[in-house]
Specification:
CATH class of the largest domain: Alpha Beta
CATH architecture of the largest domain: 3-Layer(aba) Sandwich
CATH topology of the largest domain: Rossmann fold
Structural class: alpha/beta
Number of strands: 12
Helix content: 40-55%
Number of domains: 3
Order of helices and strands: HHHHHEHEHEHEEHEHEHEHEHEHEE
Strand content: 5-15%
Mean pLDDT: 87
Oligomer: single chain
Strand order of the largest sheet: 2-1-3-4-5-11
Number of helices: 14
Radius of gyration: 30 Å
Length: 365
């Protein structure tokens, strides 16, 4: 039902009444709703703890600058009223967001997840929050992600590999924040590097195959730069030993178990003799091993298989998988150390940390 509202100008001409009502004279009477209780403020913490606002700020931002008793009293008040610090205000006042951006191709690969874990363990202990994004190996997606992240003014950024486009590289270079690139030892990094040589990873597998007497050898890997570098190191080492492998099989990135299955099926079905396959990730190699088991192809007697990454499942396969070990966890923790030092203003210059690779020979070769 429509309600009638009384306009004080009801007896005035229509045009005047319209102006009067539109200006607010005819607004309906409404009930005043009780104000919702506000969220806890820093002033509430200070009052409850019996200290000044400055002391509360010190406890939250530089806890070592106050006595343990004061710190305990303030934190008890924080917990009691459920106070959450306004980090945006702190960032505006101190030019620090206490956010570290991290960009990886995917977290479906447990090695990249290990890198994020290593990064997180270090940074969270220092009071930083990680802003995480995945590129999906796509240049446009990476550019959009970098744009969005830099717009949130992170204090520093970690990136897996080199930027996928020149435009993104220029954007990162112009950002003026500490940057650590990981998982590669690129020739011209933006700032710091923590990683290993992917070409060396391919080299150690090729040397292992040659030492085992394998000569009819294939490579399976993704189209991403790191997989290509493994293939180049692998094929160059084979060529130096007088072995010329047939063309590599390229699968989508990130490689899945099904891609490894399909690739080894193609190799076994194409009629060319083959006695060893290097797959550029453990996930692909596990798919290949499962397909061999399904077909009754004995490993390594009929076909030797090696992967890359030394993931947990690799050592649990039957037979256990030969692979190349790298530490995603250490990459993340060392990257965090460099970022924290740079954010703190500790002079170090551009750092290049090569963690190396290690062949883990198991029963599949």
């Amino acid at each position: 039902m429509w309600k009638r509202f009384h306009c004080q100008a009801a007896q005035q001409p229509l045009s005047v009444r319209r102006r009067s009502c539109l200006s607010g004279a005819m607004k309906p009477k409404t009930r005043t709703r009780a104000a919702a209780p506000g969220r806890p403020r820093m002033e509430d913490v200070a009052r409850l703890a019996g200290v000044s606002l400055v002391t509360v700020s010190r406890v939250l931002n530089t806890p070592d600058a106050v006595t343990p008793a004061t710190r305990q009293a303030v934190m008890a008040a924080v917990r009691r009223i459920g106070y959450v610090p306004n980090l945006t205000a702190g960032a505006l006042a101190g030019s620090r967001s206490r956010i570290i951006a991290a960009i990886v191709p995917t977290i479906a690969n447990s090695i990249f997840a290990d890198t994020i874990q290593g990064l997180s363990d270090r940074l969270e202990g220092a009071g930083y929050t990680i802003l995480l994004g995945q590129t999906g190996y796509d240049a446009q997606r990476e550019k959009a992600l970098v744009t969005a992240m830099l717009g949130r003014r992170p204090d520093a950024l970690m990136l897996v590999g080199a930027p996928l486009s020149a435009a993104t590289g220029r954007m990162l270079t112009a950002a003026g924040i500490p940057i650590v690139q990981t998982w590669e030892m690129m020739r011209r990094p933006i700032d710091h590097v923590v990683g290993f040589s992917n070409a060396a990873a391919g080299r150690v597998v090729a040397e292992h195959f040659v030492a085992r007497g394998y000569r009819r050898i294939r490579f399976v890997g993704g189209a991403d730069a790191r997989s290509k570098a493994r293939r180049e190191g692998f094929e160059a080492t084979l060529a130096a030993a007088g072995v010329a492998p047939p063309p590599a099989i390229t699968v989508p990135s990130p490689g899945m178990v099904a891609h490894g299955r399909d690739a080894v099926s193609r190799i076994l079905d194409d009629g060319q003799p083959v006695d060893a396959v290097f797959l550029s990730t453990d996930v692909l190699a596990i798919g290949a091993l499962l397909e061999c088991q399904r077909r009754g192809v004995t490993v390594p007697q009929r076909l030797a298989i090696a992967g890359f990454g030394d993931q947990d499942l690799a050592r649990e396969m039957v037979p256990p998988l030969t692979t190349v070990r790298i530490s995603g966890l250490e990459i993340g923790s060392r990257a965090a150390d460099l970022l924290l030092a740079a954010v703190a203003g500790k002079p170090s210059g551009a750092q290049r940390i090569d963690l190396g690779v290690q062949l883990i020979a198991r029963a599949t070769t």
